[in-house]
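SEQUENCE-TO-STRUCTURE ENTRY
===========================
Question of interest: how does this chain fold, as expressed in backbone structure tokens?
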Amino acid sequence: MSMAATTFDPAKVDYEAEYNNRILVPDSGAYGARWANASALMRDTSTAELDIPYGPGIRNRYDLFRAGNRRMATPLAVYIHGGVWQRGDRKDYSVVADALVARGVDVALPSYTLCPDVKVADIYEELRLFMRALWRKTGRRPVVVGHSVGGTMAAAMLATDWSALPDVPDDLVRCAYALSGVFEVEPYVHTTYNIAVRINAEDARKVSPALWAAPKGRTLVAAVGGAESREFVRQSLDIAARWSAAGVKAECVIVPGGNHFSMVDELTRPDSAMLERIVGLAAASAGI
């Protein structure tokens, strides 16, 4: 599904109303509480290596959940949490590994330093450091999955020029699946989220993967809920159209009735089409 790329205009759009999903989804807190409870159980009962360091920061840690039915080349997925770069932690999202592990996919979840302690560009560098550490540990190329700004960063990892970094393959990230991502970051400048993010329009453009050189030949799925705001739908449609035209295997998937938070639940349902697609992308990334 595609459409011609559009542009945003802060004079015409109420970006607070379009991007503040805690207002758009009144029971958003209930989702987070449920995920946190299920994640605590997952951490207590799963086969996993927890709190693995990947860098010098306090939050430079990741967890690696292991699939029980292992193969010669077990597929690998990375999940990057959202929170508008200012809240959240991997420990509250361990639940997303459950259904993937059951399907034979290892899952790594990183934490990262939050704003305002660092800038958004610094978070991108931390995640690249994590990706290098994960490669050194596993020797496998993962599908990178992320939600909200985690989806933004999943696209950023896909579009990273890995040839510029030592000790990793040039095609370290072949596939990404972004849930409810924001690929042009400048709208956040015009919201209350920017109190903590502290980003200006110029810097926002620098961390907007939709404005980077398209990662030709790689695969991006941008999924968005049908009940999300017009801006979130626009963001996913636009990057799919823009990158497809530039040689990326990119598409937008609209999940009927999905809101910004119920999209994460799709990862936990064993019968969801989203889960099935991510399992396939994990296998493709691993060359299976």
Remarks:
- The longest helix spans residues 120-138.
